[in-house]
Amino acid sequence: MGPIVAGIVQWLIAAGVTMAAVGVVNKGNPANTLGRALSVTLVVTLISLVFMNILAKILLVPFLIGIVLWFAVFMTAYGLGPLQAFGVGLLQALIGWAVSLALRAFGLGG
After folding, report:
1. Exposed, middle or buried by CB within 10 Å (0-12, 13-18, 19+), for 62?
2. CA-CA distance, 48 to 40, in Å (whole number)?
3. What is the pLDDT of residue 36?
4. Which of 30, 36, 50, 101 is the most buried (most CB within 10 A)?
């Protein structure tokens, strides 16, 4: 599988994890669509890359800005409160971990 196809598959899996997490925290949310999840995962990936990976190695403040932006994206995109956004983050981590384990079990993970 080429790197572009692998990246698209990874993006689709991340969007699916996001949809599942939002669906558990806020059932019946009309904004919980694949298009919204793809957009949100793209924005959050860019925020994570800049604020949480690159700049956070130098200063703590960019890391905190990244966290605030992450909350803002989820709260705005899905109309969630801060505790619901936190719950989505926890569920994303747990579901992502489970998906990673499952992919490794079938020899598909890294």
Report:
1. middle
2. 12
3. 96
4. 36
Structure tokens at 51: 């604020």
Contact 11, 43 (CB under 8 A): no
Q: Which among 44, 45, 37, 39 is positioned nearest to 18, based on CA atoms?
A: 37
Nearest to 88 by CA among 13, 14, 23, 22: 22
> How large is the average pLDDT for residues 57-76?
87
C-alpha angle 11/43/35, rounded to 5°?
60
Whole-prediction pTM value? 0.80
